[in-house]
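Support request, please re-run this one:
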Amino acid sequence: MSTKVLLSIKPEFADAIFSGKKKYEYRKAKFKKENIVKVFVYSSSPVCKVIGEFVPSSIISSTPKELWTSTKRHSGISKLYFDEYFGDRALGHAIKVGSFKRYSFPKSLKDMFDISRPPQSFQYV
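Re-run finished. Output below.
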């Protein structure tokens, strides 16, 4: 069964994904469900809208040190931000952005998914 996910992402990182600069979205927790076929991007405050979607081409799970080594070229973030985000965690995850589409007109959570609150990190939809 294919699964779709709604991710909350800070506006600067969401914009970097849709400009092609950021090709990896980092997460502390991995999705429990397999076969994620689409990721909807909710750009958090002050945008507060779903601004686009992408197909995840893979998910890498590794130590933060190994993740940075293999993804830094297309991370779209600084090493300092990466290190602060993962802290002393033993494991991290990087969702590789495949094909993507930015919406011409951002959409509300209510209109797209009939929900009123954005997910803290992610939500299956």
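The longest strand covers residues 92-107. The domain at 3-124 is CATH 2.30.130.30 (Archaeosine Trna-guanine Transglycosylase; Chain: A, domain 4).
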